[in-house]
Design a protein that fits this description.
A hairpin with a 6-residue loop joins strand 9 and strand 10. The chain has helices at 38-45, 266-280, 291-296, 301-304, 311-315, 320-330, and strands spanning 63-68, 75-77, 83-86, 96-97, 106-112, 115-121, 126-127, 142-150, 156-162, 169-176, 179-184, 187-192, 196-204, 208-213, 216-222, 232-234, 237-238, 246-247, 251-260. The strands form 4 sheets. Strands 1, 5, 6, 8, 13, 14, 15 and 19 form an 8-stranded antiparallel beta sheet that branches. A 6-stranded antiparallel beta sheet has the order 7-16-9-10-11-12, with no helix packed on it. It has a 3-stranded antiparallel beta sheet with strand order 2-3-4, with no helix packed on it. The chain is an alpha+beta fold. It is 15% helix and 31% strand.
Length: 337
C-alpha cells in the first residue's frame, strides 16, 4: 500500500501533557572489539584525523546500516533529482527505497562542507522494509547515528520502527522545535537541543539509553519492553501499529545514517564523532565544565541562578545532598551583593 503522509503537525504527543521527564542516570556501555576493513572505511569516510593504530574511525563490527549521501554511487536519483534508492554500504543489504515518485526526497549538492544531503520536506520518506537485522527486540543493545541539518521551528523523524502509541514502538529517533527525543522499546523522553547541524546519537545498552548531540550527552532514559513488526522508515514513522500511514515526517536534511546492533563504547563514539566532524567541517565542541567546579566558584545571586541548568549532572552525583547543604550555608542574598 502506498504511504499516505498525514498533515498533522504538533509536537510529538506533547499536546497530551504527558511528556515524561528523563531519568538522569549514568549509562554503562560495553567495550567494543577489533575493527575490520580499515582501508575501505577510511577511504569512504575521508577521515584525515588520528585514529589509534589498527582502528578505523568508523567501527564496522555489527554495523547493519550505513547510508552516506556523499557516496554518489550509492544514491540513485531520477531526472528530477529525487531519490528512489539509497544503497546500504554496511553489506547487510538494507537499502532505503521509495517506488512512489510523489514521495521521494531530494538529493541536494554542496550543503555540508561541499557534500550533498538528502532533503526531506515532511511529506517524503524512504522505506527499509522489515529487515531482521534492524528488528531489535527488548534487551538488545543498539546504536543509531544521524548527521542532520535541523532548522529552527521544524520537526521530524530520523529513523523509526513502530507506529501507534509509544508502547507499540521499538525505536523512534526524532526531534521537535527546540528539542530532541527518542522512544526506546516503548519508553519516551525528550531534551532541549538548539537547531543546527547535528551529529545525533542514540545508544542503548539494552536497559538504558542515551542521546548525544555533537558529542555532548543531553539525555538518559530507561528502555522499556515495547516491540514492533512494522516497516523501518527513514524520514517518518508509521502512523499506526498495523503498518499503515506515516506520521512525524522529517523537515530537514540527512547526510549520513549509521546503525549498529550493539552499543558503541565511549572511545568508539568519540572516534566516530571526530571522523564525522572532520568530514562535514563541523567545529570541535567545547569541553563541558564540571558542575562541582562551577558550584565551588559561585559567589553572586546571578551565578547561583544557573543551578537549575546543572540539575542533570547533580542528579548523577553521589554527594549531591551534601553539596546542596553546603550551598545553603553560603548562598548570598541580594542585599549582600
Amino acid at each position: 500500500m502506498k504511504d499516505q503522509t498525514t498533515s498533522r503537525k504538533k509536537p510529538e504527543e506533547a499536546a497530551r501533557g504527558d511528556r515524561p521527564r528523563a531519568r538522569v542516570s549514568p549509562l554503562a556501555l560495553p567495550k567494543g572489539g577489533a575493527m575490520n576493513r580499515i582501508v575501505v572505511l577510511m577511504a569512504v569516510v575521508g577521515f584525515a584525523g588520528a585514529a589509534p593504530a589498527g582502528e578505523a574511525p568508523v567501527p564496522d563490527r555489527d554495523l547493519v546500516l550505513w547510508l552516506d549521501a556523499s557516496n554518489r554511487a550509492a544514491v540513485q536519483t531520477e531526472a528530477d533529482g529525487r531519490v528512489s534508492r539509497w544503497a546500504d554500504a554496511s553489506g547487510r543489504g538494507n537499502h532505503a527505497v521509495q517506488p512512489d515518485p510523489a514521495s521521494r526526497p531530494l538529493l541536494v549538492p554542496n550543503v555540508l562542507a561541499g557534500k550533498p544531503v538528502v532533503r526531506f520536506d515532511g511529506k517524503r520518506l524512504l522505506n527499509l522494509g522489515r529487515s531482521e537485522s534492524l528488528a531489535f527486540r527488548p534487551g538488545v543493545p543498539f546504536s543509531l547515528v544521524a548527521v542532520a541539518k535541523v532548522a529552527g521551528g521544524t520537526s521530524g523523524t530520523f529513523l523509526a520502527k513502530g507506529g501507534g502509541d509509544v508502547d507499540q514502538r521499538c525505536y523512534h529517533f526524532y526531534f521537535a522545535p527546540g528539542r530532541i527525543g527518542a522512544v526506546v522499546y516503548g519508553r519516551r523522553a525528550e531534551a532541549k537541543a538548539a537547531p543546527g547541524v547535528w551529529i545525533a546519537v542514540l545508544v542503548c545498552d539494552g536497559r538504558r539509553a542515551e542521546i548525544l548531540v555533537n558529542g555532548q550527552s543531553v539525555l538518559n532514559l530507561d528502555a522499556g519492553r515495547g516491540v514492533s513488526s512494522v516497516d523501518v522508515l527513514l524520514g517518518a514513522r508509521r502512523e499506526s501499529a498495523d503498518n499503515q500511514g506515516t506520521y512525524w515526517g522529517l523537515v530537514g536534511d540527512l547526510a549520513e545514517v549509521l546503525v549498529y546492533r550493539r552499543a558503541l563504547d565511549r572511545k568508539e563514539l568519540d572516534r566516530l564523532s571526530a571522523a564525522l566532524r572532520t568530514k562535514y567541517g563541523l567545529p570541535t565542541p567545547a569541553a563541558p565544565v564540571d558542575a562541582a567546579a562551577r558550584i565551588a566558584a559561585m559567589k553572586t545571586p546571578a551565578e547561583f541562578a544557573v543551578l537549575p541548568e546543572l540539575a542533570g549532572e547533580l542528579a548523577q552525583r553521589d554527594d549531591t545532598a551534601a553539596m546542596l547543604r553546603s550551598l545553603a550555608k553560603r548562598q548570598p542574598t541580594d542585599a549582600a551583593s
